[in-house]
């Protein structure tokens, strides 16, 4: 009997609202009321958009429903061929200060393609942002983010930034380090690479479903510069669309669009948008992959998961046996397991030996550390015990981005003159994601179950205490998702 196969659903919504007075005021404390940027003579009772407005006017028409052919409008081989410039000379001087971790991430550049190099630095930024986010959370909270969505959105926004605001965003995102690493690289290289990355990740069928949409909505009277529109389309496949944020039909239409995109995983993404909002960026990622080594459903049983020194919870623990890449890091005192999805995406599960070891691990997580793990992995037969989990997180990233060094963007004096001559500020950077990790895939499970024998504890990789997970696309080295499961019984 065949049952539908749904081993993993991941989705992300990342929304930035640009506006002098946006949703941020209702959702977030401490938002300051901007003094300028109000639209003059704005008529809040605009006529309702025609029902098919967004279908007709959305570039994300190119979102492909399951089963439909992915239509290529780029010559992918040519595009990726241009990236095979492994011999690019890295000009950057070796780091003199070992604490300058972004600089030492440059040591990972030789032998890597440009996209992989950019992804090394994207991961560096993701780890910085992760640390900022988990500082705001308690140690017992789960954490989940989709770094590639954030980097892509920041890359897109940065097209419209100027002056110090631009410099700061590029420095914090490590784009500056990238450009500085070779005399062959310039600013446009970064945007070109995001274009290729977007194409490589989201527009091809490699046996998993990974889709992303960038939408940029602009209030009707807001004057957006033409060159910004053109570049956003050219590099990020995004379209600047006219919208009326005060129109409930716009919100329901957008929510419907996001819900459809995420297969119903994210509903009511937008609630009420402040009608004075001027610009909003939406970035959605949806991932569905199936494990190479599936977890037979009948092997899932309740097991103890240790939350901390005092507390234990019983959670449904999936179980399977097979050949896995594993490593043990003596220095960071943790074990690493790689779980593969069909099609070249993998999840690294990182489990500190000691319950108290999570803090040190989080503090020292860098692209170099991850590469060290990947290089030291060996192929072993393991019985794997992994809790089922489902995380749903909704962040306003403004504070975390500030802690990660992006401050000017959210200042009243931010220079966004590349987007519009009218002054604007960003007060909401919405990042919402969900991930479900389970064993489903009963069809293959029957096969896996044959010969399943529990092994001795040495051959067991038991994820029975708080752990980190990192989901990478292997060919581009892109960090797609990362998170911490402190308690699988919570979301
Ligand atoms: C606002 O728009 C509505 C609908 O288009 C129109 O009936 C109304 O007269 C407008 N009000 C102003 C103040 O322009
Ligand atoms: C760029 O690289 C040069 C040479 O390696 C270095 O001296 C300089 O400080 C770097 N600049 C920035 C902004 O990182
Ligand atoms: C923005 O930056 C540009 C380029 O550095 C500068 O010419 C312009 O005066 C700045 N505008 C504002 C409003 O800060
Ligand atoms: C590990 O070894 C098994 C059996 O030798 C092989 O089938 C599998 O492809 C290997 N896996 C990896 C990731 O190298």
UniProtKB/TrEMBL annotation:
SMART domains: SERPIN (SM00093). Keywords: Signal. The keyword Protein biosynthesis does not apply. The keyword Ribonucleoprotein does not apply. Residues 127-488 form the Serpin domain. The gene is SERPIND1. One of its GO terms (molecular function) is serine-type endopeptidase inhibitor activity. One of its GO terms (cellular component) is extracellular space. GO terms for biological process: blood coagulation. Transmembrane segments: none annotated. Gene3D superfamilies: Alpha-1-antitrypsin, domain 1 (2.30.39.10), Antithrombin, subunit I, domain 2 (3.30.497.10). This is Heparin cofactor 2. It comes from Vicugna pacos (Alpaca). Belongs to the serpin family. It holds the Pfam family Serpin. Residues 1-19 form the signal peptide.
């Amino acid at each position: 009997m065949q049952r539908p196969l749904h081993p993993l659903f991941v989705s992300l919504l990342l929304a930035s609202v640009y506006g002098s007075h946006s949703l941020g005021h209702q959702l977030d404390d401490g938002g300051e009321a901007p003094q300028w940027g109000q639209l003059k003579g704005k008529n809040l009772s605009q006529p309702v958009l025609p029902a098919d407005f967004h279908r007709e006017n959305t570039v994300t028409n190119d979102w492909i429903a399951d089963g439909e052919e992915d239509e290529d409008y780029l010559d992918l081989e040519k595009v990726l061929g241009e990236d095979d410039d492994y011999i690019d000379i890295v000009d950057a001087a070796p780091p003199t200060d070992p604490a300058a971790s972004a600089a030492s991430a440059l040591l990972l550049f030789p032998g890597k393609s440009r996209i992989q190099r950019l992804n090394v630095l994207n991961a560096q930024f993701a780890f910085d942002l992760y640390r900022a986010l988990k500082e705001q959370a308690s140690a017992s909270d789960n954490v989940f983010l989709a770094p590639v969505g954030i980097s892509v959105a920041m890359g897109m926004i940065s097209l419209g930034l100027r002056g110090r605001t631009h410099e700061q965003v590029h420095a914090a995102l490590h784009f500056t380090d990238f450009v500085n690493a070779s005399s062959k690289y310039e600013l446009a290289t970064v945007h070109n690479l995001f274009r290729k990355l977007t194409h490589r990740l989201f527009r091809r069928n490699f046996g998993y479903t990974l889709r992303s949409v960038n939408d940029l909505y602009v209030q009707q009277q807001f004057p957006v510069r033409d060159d910004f529109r053109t570049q956003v389309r050219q590099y990020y496949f995004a379209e600047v669309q006219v919208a009326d944020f005060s129109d409930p039909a716009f919100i329901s239409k957008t929510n419907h669009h996001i819900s459809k995109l995420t297969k119903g995983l994210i509903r009511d993404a937008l609630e009420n948008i402040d009608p004075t909002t001027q610009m909003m960026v939406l970035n959605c990622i949806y991932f569905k992959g199936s494990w190479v080594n599936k977890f037979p459903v009948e092997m899932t049983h309740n097991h103890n998961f240790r939350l901390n020194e005092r507390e234990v919870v019983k959670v449904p623990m999936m179980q399977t046996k097979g050949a896995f890449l594993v490593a043990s890091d003596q220095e960071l005192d943790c074990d690493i397991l790689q779980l593969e999805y069909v099609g070249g995406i993998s999840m690294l599960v990182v489990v500190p030996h000691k319950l108290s070891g999570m803090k040190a691990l989080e503090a020292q997580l860098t692209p170099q550390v991850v590469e060290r793990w990947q290089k030291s992995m060996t192929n072993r037969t393991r019985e794997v015990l992994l809790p089922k989990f489902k995380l749903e997180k909704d962040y306003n990233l403004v504070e975390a981005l500030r802690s990660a060094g992006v401050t000017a963007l959210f200042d009243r004096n931010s220079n966004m003159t590349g987007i519009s001559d009218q002054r604007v500020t960003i007060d909401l950077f919405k990042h919402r994601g969900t991930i479900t990790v389970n064993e489903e895939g009963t069809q293959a499970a029957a096969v896996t179950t044959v010969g399943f024998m529990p092994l001795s504890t040495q051959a067991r990789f038991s994820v029975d205490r708080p752990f980190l997970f990192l989901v990478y696309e292997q060919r581009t080295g892109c960090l797609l998702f990362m998170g911490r499961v402190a308690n699988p019984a919570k979301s």
